[in-house]
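Technical annex, item 7. During the second reporting period the consortium partners agreed on a shared format for inverse folding records so that results from different sites could be compared directly. Each record opens with the tokenized structure and is followed by the designed sequence. A conforming record, contributed by the partner at site C, is shown below for reference.
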């Protein structure tokens, strides 16, 4: 039951598990509303109705229903209809903005070689439909929780309305940065699609950035509060090195940006009950983790060798994730007595690299290009060490999953990785992983070597694994912090 003392929230995102996912934003969009609702906070969610949302219904156990809302959305000279569907899944009501022209496509944002050319129009349409639905539902929300650039225009739309003629904004807006590297930057010529009066970009300083439309900036400037997904990243984004050009905008915000570390869906990620694994295990039954290791090594077509530590990597193969540093270290790394499994997809140059590594080291390395959620669980369970040498990492979820699965994370010292992993070499009793002291192949190799020595000290290794498995990574703590932010905005 929802409690009327709490604010009523609409969570707006461009992706959410189990409906459609490309990365960590989808995990957060699923878990945060699903955690808040049982706490009595009424949170509803809204997403675009991508093709894969339709296709996933029976596989993921939800069914979409058409609502009576068909909204007419002006986009420049055109008027395009949005059909609103909904479903209730895991206790959360989710609305979906349907429009075949924009969302009935194979991917969410981009084909492997290029972004969809009409992304500004697609996500402007989504954002306008969000505002139109809020007004159409007739039951106001106290807080809109917006996430990343795909929702950044909403504050302006809440003020100006769909036709640019004005609207009274009643809602408080929280804007969460999940990744500042993707800002939604588009040519000023797209401005006419917004129907904002004037059609001159410099009339709208909140969305203008060096003569272009910048949707991330629009979200930052238009929101009542801004947060990001870890305290360290919250500090980093105020610096030139990590601010991706927007550090000045962030430093100038009236309220400082706060960092709230993401949680883990501990039902989906639980080695004791995970149905995708060949064997379940726990802190007190760690030996069975070895069954998972043998199975996943063989699933990738390598020969299982108990004495070789197994490094795994799952993630988007993009510059952020440090694949270039791995590339520079790979020869030396694979000369060591270890095995390495990789799963990911992203930039084509990295796909090529992975296929070359498959050819060059057929006994020690096996990489797969693709997105496979079940396989990612088996890798988390089977690995001894999880590699995450990211150049920057707003929060990172895979290192948290690794901690839950007793798979020791080897990570770069940046962003949320710093806030969630403690270096064994600094804290031998309480350590949970290894942190690189620089974004270089040498620093990565130093960590890999340290990890290998740990592997051959079974008692120490066990302690490090157990330390990680004991760490509190539940969503409850995170959800409470978000609730405090919502409440602060409504009362403050
Ligand atoms: P990011 O959001 O930057 O991609 P996170 O670590 O926050 O990084 O979240 C990544 C999420 O996406 C995790 O749930 C991870 O398991 C999942 N993921 C990424 N790539 C793949 C893949 N190729 N196959 C399966 N899951 C993947
Ligand atoms: C982004 C970040 C990642 C974070 C995720 C969820 O994709 O790259 O670090 O965990 O969002 O907040």
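Designed sequence (site C submission):
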């Amino acid at each position: 039951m929802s409690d009327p003392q709490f604010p009523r929230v609409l969570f707006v995102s461009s992706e959410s598990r189990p409906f459609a996912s490309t990365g960590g934003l989808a995990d957060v969009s699923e878990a945060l509303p699903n955690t808040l609702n049982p706490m009595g906070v009424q949170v509803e969610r809204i997403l675009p109705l991508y093709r894969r949302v339709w296709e996933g219904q029976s596989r993921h156990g939800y069914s979409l229903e058409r609502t009576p809302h068909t909204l007419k959305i002006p986009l420049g000279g055109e008027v395009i209809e949005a059909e609103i569907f909904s479903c209730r899944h895991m206790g959360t009501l989710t609305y979906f903005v349907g429009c075949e022209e924009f969302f009935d496509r194979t991917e969410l944002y981009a084909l492997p070689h290029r972004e969809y050319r009409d992304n500004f129009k697609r996500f402007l349409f989504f954002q306008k439909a969000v505002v139109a639905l809020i007004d159409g539902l007739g039951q106001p929300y106290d807080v809109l929780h917006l996430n990343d650039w795909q929702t950044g225009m909403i504050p302006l739309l809440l003020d100006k309305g769909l036709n640019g003629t004005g609207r009274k904004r009643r809602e408080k807006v929280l804007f969460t940065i999940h990744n500042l590297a993707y800002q939604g930057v588009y040519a000023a010529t797209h401005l006419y699609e917004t129907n904002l009066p004037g059609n001159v970009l410099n009339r709208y300083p909140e969305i203008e950035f060096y003569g272009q439309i910048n949707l991330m900036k629009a979200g930052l400037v238009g929101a009542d509060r801004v947060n990001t997904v870890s305290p360290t990243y919250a500090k980093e984004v105020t610096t030139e090195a990590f601010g991706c050009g927007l550090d000045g905008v962030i430093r100038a915000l009236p309220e400082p940006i706060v960092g709230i570390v993401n949680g883990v869906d501990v039902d989906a990620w639980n080695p004791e009950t995970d149905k995708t694994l060949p064997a379940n295990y726990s802190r007190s039954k760690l030996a069975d983790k070895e069954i998972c290791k043998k199975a996943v090594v063989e699933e990738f077509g390598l020969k299982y060798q108990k004495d070789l530590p197994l490094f795994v990597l799952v993630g988007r193969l993009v510059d952020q994730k440090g694949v270039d540093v791995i590339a520079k270290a790979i020869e030396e790394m694979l000369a060591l007595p270890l095995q390495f499994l990789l799963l990911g997809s992203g930039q084509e140059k990295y796909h090529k690299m992975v296929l070359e590594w498959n050819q060059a080291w057929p006994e020690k390395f096996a990489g797969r290009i693709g997105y496979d959620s079940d396989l990612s669980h088996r890798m988390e369970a089977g690995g001894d060490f999880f590699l995450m040498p990211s150049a920057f990492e707003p929060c990172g979820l895979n290192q948290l999953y690794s901690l839950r699965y007793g798979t020791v994370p080897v990570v770069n010292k940046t962003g949320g990785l710093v806030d969630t992993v403690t270096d064994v070499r600094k804290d031998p009793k309480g350590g949970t992983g290894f942190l690189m002291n620089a974004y270089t192949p040498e620093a990565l190799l130093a960590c890999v070597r340290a990890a290998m020595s740990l592997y051959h000290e079974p008692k120490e290794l066990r302690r490090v694994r157990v330390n990680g498995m004991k760490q509190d990574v539940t969503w409850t703590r995170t959800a409470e912090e978000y609730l405090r932010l919502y409440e602060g905005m409504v009362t403050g």
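The CA atoms of residues 47 and 359 lie 41 Å apart. The chain has a mean pLDDT of 96. All partners now use this format for quarterly exchanges.
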